[in-house]
Amino acid sequence: MPAIITERRSYVAGTWVDGDGAFGVENPADETTVAEVGTTPLAEVERAIVEARRSFDAGVWADLPAADRAKILGVFLDHLAANGPALVATMVAEAGQPVAFAERAQLASGLGLGRDTIALYLSMRHEEASPVPVDELVRGRLALSVRRHEPVGVVSAITPYNGAIIMAFQKVIPALMAGNSVILRPSPLTPISSLAFGAAAEAAGLPPGVLSVVVEEGAAGAELLTTHPAVDMVSFTGSTAVGRRILAQAAPTVKRVALELGGKSAQIYLPDAVEKVAAGAMQVVAMTAGQACVAATRMVVPADRKDEVVAAVSRAYGALKVGPPADPSALMGPVINAAARDRCERLIAAAEKNGGTVAVGGGRPAGLDRGYYVEPTVLDVPDNGNPAAQEEIFGPVLAVLGYRDLDDAVRIANDSEYGLSGQVYGADVAAATAVARRLRTGAVNVNTAVFSAYAPSGGYKQSGLGRERGPDGVRAFQEVKHIAIGELR
C-alpha cells in the first residue's frame, strides 16, 4: 500500500494550525497506532467559525458567479483525485476498510458525487418568477413576484467514522457550491483522511475562511460548532443519540439542522424472490462489516420458508472471508473499535436471552487475535420485539423474521423507531413496488440500488431530518427569499 497522508495539523481559515496536544488514531485491524494527530485548540475552532462568518458576510465566495465557484471546486476535486492513493491508504489504515471499499465506495463514488453535484447545481434555477393570481397583481400593484434561493451562511459539517470521505463529499460540495462557508469536523476515530480536504482547499485557492477542517479527540469543538451564534446550520451524520443532543444544542440559536441518523432497515422478500436472500444478506456485511446506517439488518421473509432462508444465509455468511484489509481475499474487516465489538456481542447475547437463536457466527473469528473482528452473524429471531430487530447494532449481525402475508411484512418493517432505508425484492415488480410505497422510510430499493447526486437520501422518524443529495440536498443548504417588485406610485 502507498504511504498514508502525512499532514497532522488542522486547516483553519487558509492556514495550517499546530495542535495544543495530540492523540493517537488506532488501526482497528491490528490495534496499532496509525499516527498521532494534533488536537485543534478550541480558540482555533472559534477562529474557524469567526472567519467563516467574515468570509460569508464579505461575499468573497458567496457572491462569485456559480460558474466560477464550479471551476474552483473542479480544481479542488482534481487535487483529491491526484492524491487518491494516499487517501485510500489512509482510509484503510484508520477505518480498517477493505481496499476495494475505500477505492470505490468512498473515493471514486465521492469524486463522482462531487462532480455530479456541481452539474446538478448548475442545472437548477436559483431565482425564478412565482405565479401570482391576477386579482393580487391588480390589488397589490405587483409587477413581479420572485422566489430566490440563497446560501444559508456558515455551515458546520460533522461526519462519521464509517464513511468519513463519502460523507464529507456529500456535505461539503453542495454546501460550497451553494455559496456557503463550511467548517468540516470529522469523527475523532477517522480524522486523518479528512485533512485532505484542507489541502485541496489550499491547492484550489479557496478564499481564507471558506473551508476549514478541524480535528479533535473529544467533543468540545463539535459542541462549539453546534452552539455558536455565528453558525447558521449544522449538517450531521451519525447516531440518533448524538443527533438528539445536537438538536438541543442548536435550539437556543434556532439553527437549521440536517440530520442523517441511525437505521434498522428491513429487506422484504416476496414469495417469488426468496432465492435472492443470500445475495441480499451479503450486502449487509461485505466491505462495511455492517457499519452502515442504511444496512438492511432485518430480513423479512415468508414464515413458511424461514428455515430455508436461515440455512441459505448461514451458508453464505459461513463462507465469507474475514480478515485485515491487506488480505485481498477478505470481504469483511473489523468493526471500528473495542466498544463497537462489545456492543455487537452484548446485543447478540440479548437476542438469545429473548428467544433468538444464533444460526451462524456470534463470536470472534478464529486466528484473528488482534483487531476488532466479529464473525458475520445470522440470528433467527421469533418476532420483531427482539432486541436484535429493534436496536441498531452497527455490526455484521442480521436478524431473520418471518411474515404471514404482505400486510404483516409491512407491519414488521414499519414497527421501528427508525425509517432510513429499505429493500423489497420481488419478481412481480408491480407487487414489490406496491409494498415499497407502504414503507415509512426515506428510501426504498426495489430489486436494485442507486447512489447518485441526483437521488435524495434521508430518514423518517428518528432516522433524521432533511435530505442529502439530489435537488433536495442542494436546497438543504439554501434559504428561500421572496421578493415582491412593483412600481413606485
Automatic annotation (TrEMBL):
The active site is at E260. Its EC number is 1.2.1.3. It catalyses: an aldehyde + NAD(+) + H2O = a carboxylate + NADH + 2 H(+). Keywords: Oxidoreductase. It is an enzyme of class 1 (oxidoreductase). It holds the Pfam family Aldedh. InterPro entries: Ald_DH/histidinol_DH (IPR016161), Ald_DH_C (IPR016163), Ald_DH_CS_CYS (IPR016160), Ald_DH_CS_GLU (IPR029510), Ald_DH_N (IPR016162), Aldehyde_DH_dom (IPR015590). Residues 16-483 form the Aldehyde dehydrogenase domain. It comes from the Bacteria. GO terms for molecular function: aldehyde dehydrogenase (NAD+) activity. Belongs to the aldehyde dehydrogenase family. PANTHER family: ALDEHYDE DEHYDROGENASE, ALDEHYDE DEHYDROGENASE-RELATED. This is aldehyde dehydrogenase (NAD(+)). It comes from Pseudofrankia inefficax (strain DSM 45817 / CECT 9037 / DDB 130130 / EuI1c).
